[in-house]
Amino acid sequence: MQLRALVTGASAGLGAEFTRQLAADGLALVLVARDAERLERLAAELRSARAVEVEVLPADLTEPADLERVAARLADAAHPIDVLINNAGFAVADPFHASAIDEERRMHELLSWVPLRLAHAALPGMRERGRGGILNVASLAGRLPSGSYAAAKSQVITLSRALHARYHRDGITVTALLPGFVPTEFHERMGVEPTSVPRAGWADASTVVSEGLRALRKRRGIVVSDWRYRLAAPIIPLVPDRIIAGFGLGRRIER
């Protein structure tokens, strides 16, 4: 029986890398993102390279009707989803006091509400089948006092831990993946240039994804990706909040 994964934010960056690694493992795929043309190009690449079944589902997850279409796909018992990758996201680059409140709301809906809604749609079928995996792409920023983005990612981490604890006994793993800086379009859209971050601070996208999928397979509830960030993670709680905020580290440690 072929397993099937649904990946949000699949058209670029970590999302596209998730699709490639999942296809290499032989999973059929449902690709979700706003840009239908890019999704079709990626689908053609995956079908050609891996000979896997690929379904394209264009959707803007901040639009309620589109979100509900994706939720309905997750709940479709006739074509079940075995793995859900909640990866879609963006960040508001402006400081909180100067940001547009509509953009803040849109960001929180995409980062916090969307993973909750999609997990809620996927879990009943996974419980009935006695198996399933949900991987939520959070961020190491979710452990920092670093603004609105970090607050949203903190909620994703907490939700993941709660769902993992509750549904682990049902054969379902919920994993929160906490990357640091990864050179993708995510940071380009924020205006964060590679030269603005020390070279040693960038993690490789393929490594981040492989570590996330490995954690899901091993039924781990949380994983900090990349050895450099794993070394830094225990130190973070020891640093005073005012220092982290003062140096702007929160904006720097984001997916």
From TrEMBL:
SUPFAM superfamilies: NAD(P)-binding Rossmann-fold domains (SSF51735). InterPro entries: NAD(P)-bd_dom_sf, SDR_fam. Keywords: Oxidoreductase. It comes from the Bacteria. GO terms for cellular component: membrane. Gene3D superfamilies: NAD(P)-binding Rossmann-like Domain. One of its GO terms (molecular function) is oxidoreductase activity. Belongs to the short-chain dehydrogenases/reductases (SDR) family. PANTHER family: DEHYDROGENASE/REDUCTASE SDR FAMILY MEMBER 7B (PTHR44196), SHORT-CHAIN DEHYDROGENASE-RELATED (PTHR44196:SF2). This is Short-chain dehydrogenase. The lineage of its organism: Bacteria, Bacillati, Actinomycetota, Actinomycetes, Micrococcales.
